[in-house]
UniProtKB/TrEMBL annotation:
Gene3D superfamilies: Metal-dependent hydrolases (3.20.20.140). This is 2-pyrone-4,6-dicarboxylate lactonase. GO terms for biological process: 3,4-dihydroxybenzoate catabolic process. One of its GO terms (molecular function) is 2-pyrone-4,6-dicarboxylate lactonase activity. Residues 36-307 form the Amidohydrolase-related domain.
């Protein structure tokens, strides 16, 4: 299991914080050449890149070097690093990681209305290709939708996209805003469906309708460890983990094979009950993308098209 990783600088971890798993297993599933971990984060280190004053949590440190070591161990070729909410709109840790990745990473930033065109250009040069809008109330404070639409309008000419993070019950009230966005839109973690509900029930069907009716909408089929209710967990050699999530993720992959992405979500912020072995987490992939063609689209072709051809 993970050994404690004290947060550096003047920061103390949130009580009960689960640190990422050290010594992950080697996946049995062999990733296709050129595979991209399309959703992961860096935290600090806090002594070098302080956490934001307005943050809702204080994590353990998780550096770019540690992320790149995990990438190589699991067999990925590249990363897409998503700005963590604990850093707010201070993207320095993200940009530093991108600049040290030798072209093997792209980024998704968090920006405010006050961001300058020069700052956007500098982030683009570093490898940023999107911005993230977070609507999970326990993680961030509310940002006015007119501000978000203004930001989306400014990043569209750069060829960037918008990543949206929300929970399934909130999709009806956010529908009009999401469908007004002038960019490609990437949904984090399938909009966090309640997998204890029927896959053909109204809640998940609304999400499928969202993707079906709006061809600019993509989805990450990641984070089964966040969505699973009955497990089993990706621990102790379990290579058929999170079985209750599989039908939902497989449905999205098979319905929209050219608009899906997958990522580890390392270092798994804000997990409450367990910390998965990332090697076993990779072994979840062939359960949701069941053919070599679907696996290649999910892991290589789609993320390359979205992040490296823009």
């Amino acid at each position: 299991m993970a050994t404690p990783k004290p947060t550096s600088g003047d920061f103390t971890k949130t009580p009960g914080w689960l640190d990422w798993y050290t010594g992950p297993s080697k996946p049995q599933f062999q990733l296709p050449p050129g595979s991209v971990d399309a959703h992961c984060h860096v935290f600090g280190p806090g002594a070098q890149f302080p956490y934001a004053p307005e943050r809702k949590y204080t994590p353990c440190d998780a550096s770019a070097d540690q992320l790149f070591a995990l990438r190589d161990h699991l067999g990925f070729d590249k990363n897409v690093i998503v700005q963590a909410t604990c850093h707010g709109a201070d993207n320095r840790a993200l940009v530093d990681a991108l600049q040290r990745a030798n072209g093997k990473a792209r980024g998704v930033a968090t920006v405010r209305r006050s961001v300058t065109d020069q700052e956007l250009q500098a982030m683009h040069a570093a490898g940023v290709r999107g911005v993230r809008f977070n609507f999970v109330k326990r993680l961030v404070d509310f940002t006015p939708k007119d501000e978000l639409l203004e930001i989306a309008g400014r990043i569209a000419p750069l060829g960037w996209h918008v990543v949206i993070y929300f929970e399934a019950v909130d999709l009806p009230e956010l529908w009009d805003f999401f469908t007004a966005l002038p960019t490609t839109v990437v949904v984090d973690h399938m909009g966090r469906p309640d997998v204890s509900k029927p896959i053909d029930g109204p809640e998940f069907e609304l999400f499928l309708k969202f993707m079906r009716e709006h061809p600019n909408v993509w989805s990450k089929v990641s984070c089964p460890e966040r969505l699973s209710v009955t497990g089993p967990r990706a621990l102790d050699g379990e290579r058929n983990a999170y079985r209750d999530v599989v039908p939902f993720a497989r449905k999205v992959v098979e319905s929209f094979p050219d608009r899906v992405l997958w990522g580890t979500d390392w270092p798994h912020p804000n997990l409450k009950d367990h910390m998965p072995d990332d090697g076993l987490l990779v072994d979840f992939i062939p359960h949701i993308a069941t053919t070599p063609d679907l696996q290649r689209k999910l892991l290589v072709e789609n993320p390359t098209r979205l992040y490296w051809n823009a």
